[in-house]
Amino acid sequence: MRKFAIYGKGGIGKSTTTANVSAALASIGKKVVQIGCDPKADSTLNLLHGEPVMPVMDYYRQYTEGPDFDHIGREGYGGVFCIETGGPTPGLGCAGRGIIATFDLIDELEVFEKLSPDVVMYDVLGDVVCGGFSAPIRDGYADEIFIVTSGEKMALYAAANIFKAVENFKSRGYAQVKGLILNRRNVDDEYETVKAFADEHGLPIVADIPRSKEIQFYENKGMTVVEGDPELPVSRIYRDLAQRLLEV
Predict the structure, then answer these.
(1) Residue 161: Cβ within 10 Å count
(2) Which tens digit of pLDDT belongs to each residue from 115-174?
(3) Catalytic residue among 3, 14, 30, 58
(4) Which of 104, 127, 139, 208 is an active site residue?
(5) Does the active-site annotation cover 153?
(6) Residue 64 CB neighbours (<10 A)
(7) For the segment 119-129, what is each residue's pLDDT rounded down to a tens digit?
(8) In whole angstroms, what is the distance from residue 2 CA to residue 30 CA?
(9) Catalytic one among 31, 40, 178, 195?
(10) What's the DSSP call for residue 211?
(11) Model-wide pTM > 0.70
(12) Any catalytic annotation for residue 70?
């Protein structure tokens, strides 16, 4: 079982990237679990044709107890099993606690043992790498970290913080950053800027994803571009990225 965590600042496109990679993996016969680790709980929306799964934290609030195995998530496109952690009521509580509570529940319900996935994809907000949001790094859930960034200053600032957080746990044998995913915003000298950052941190750029109207077109229909038209150039980039992750 391969366990990847995709990190990046809010709005950088990590959920779009993760969902399309999950769809690409499913299209080549891999059993995939995708876990959205963000209070917005929208990571898996385009794998579920716009019909959101109830986040674990919402379930706790509504029923006082956590969901059982049949309600912790739902299958989406290609059989991808979709789980959302959710978060606290806005303005109350710690968002990172939703991740920790969900991970504890996944262990308790033996979700991975029952589903036997080939790949687990964690989609993690990277603006704040607090205890909860660093759980995939430090608690043995993910083995390999990839950071989504653009050439924008704040995206690279977040990427540097994520890299630093992972390095803090390096001596303990936890997950390691394996590469950057460039999700373009068409800023000046974007590739050169990200390449310089990658070289400084000893990381490869494992994918270069262009801005694409097709991505938004299919997301408006509640699906990934990989599902909507797998032969589009941008879909092929996601499919190539999925294959590359398996080969890292």
Answers:
(1) 17
(2) 999 999 999 987 766 666 677 777 778 889 999 999 999 999 999 999 998 888 776 767
(3) 14
(4) 127
(5) no
(6) 7
(7) 999 999 877 66
(8) 11
(9) 40
(10) P
(11) yes
(12) no
Residues whose CB is less than 8 angstroms from the CB of residue 166 and which lie 6 or more positions away in sequence, other chains included: 137, 145, 174, 175, 176, 177
Instruction: Please tell me the distance from the alpha carbon of residue 138 to that of residue 172, in angstroms, as a whole number.
Output: 9
d(CA 225, CA 231): 9
Segment 78-106 shows an average pLDDT of: 83
Catalytic annotation present for 127: yes
For 51-66, the pLDDT digits (tens) are 999 999 999 889 878 8
Residue 149 has phi, psi (to 5 degrees) of -145, 160
**CA dist., res. 143 & res. 208, Å (int):** 22
Please tell me the total number of residues recorded for the chain in this structure.
248
Task: Give the 3-state secondary structure of residue 82.
Answer: strand
**Gap between the Cα atoms of 152 and 186, Å rounded:** 9
